[in-house]
Amino acid sequence: MDAVERIPLDEYFMKIAHVVAQRSTCFRNNVGAVIVRDKHIVSTGYNGAPSGMEHCLDIGCFRKQNNIPSGEKHELCRAVHAEQNAIIQAALQGASTEGGVLYCTHSACMICAKMIINARIKKVYYANEYADEMAMEYFKDAGVEVEHLPLED
Fold it and tell me: Over 70: is that where the pLDDT of 82 sits?
């Protein structure tokens, strides 16, 4: 019997993050995140408006309308970021993120980096670069491992 070649776990979880991103309601970046502990999914998140509020896809994007560059003035974004939503969903379900690994379609912004650090996530994999270099400095200072894991087609 021939051995079946299995997808590596890191690639598996990153592909799931890309599927999660398909739920995003952002005009600029469709971002998905998956938090994993002990090889099991703790939670997922994608970027979109807070629960019960209208999404940018429905009412337009304030940042786009005002030519705010990606990676700047995060507080003016209507969306909750994918990493934030994944951490929030874990908290709502009472699932610990401590010692977990986060797989995300994009590298983190500095706001998400601070949340990831405080959620005690130990490692972050990302597929695409995001225009916020400060996040990488935060991760380095906090001892969070970060690895670029682009998806191959």
Answer: yes
| Residue 153: predicted pLDDT | 61
Active-site option among 5, 54, 72, 83: 83
Is residue 86 within 8 A of residue 33, CB to CB? The reply is: yes
pTM: 0.92
Q: In what order do the strands lie in the sheet with 40-46?
A: 40-46, 32-37, 101-106, 123-128, 145-148
Task: Write the CB contacts of 15 (distance below 8 Å, at least 6 apart in sequence).
Answer: 7, 151
- The tens digit of pLDDT for each residue in 1-19 reads 677 889 999 999 999 999 9
The residue-averaged pLDDT of 115-125 equals 98
CA distance 150 to 153: 10
Question: What tokens appear for 138 in the block?
Answer: 């935060």
CB 97 within 8 A of CB 122: no
Q: Is 83 a catalytic residue?
A: yes
Mention every residue, 6+ apart, whose C-beta is less than 8 A from residue 58: 25
**Spatial CA neighbour of 17 closest among 83, 79, 90:** 83
The H or E element that residue 123 is part of is strand 123-128
135 in Cβ contact with 114 (< 8 Å): no
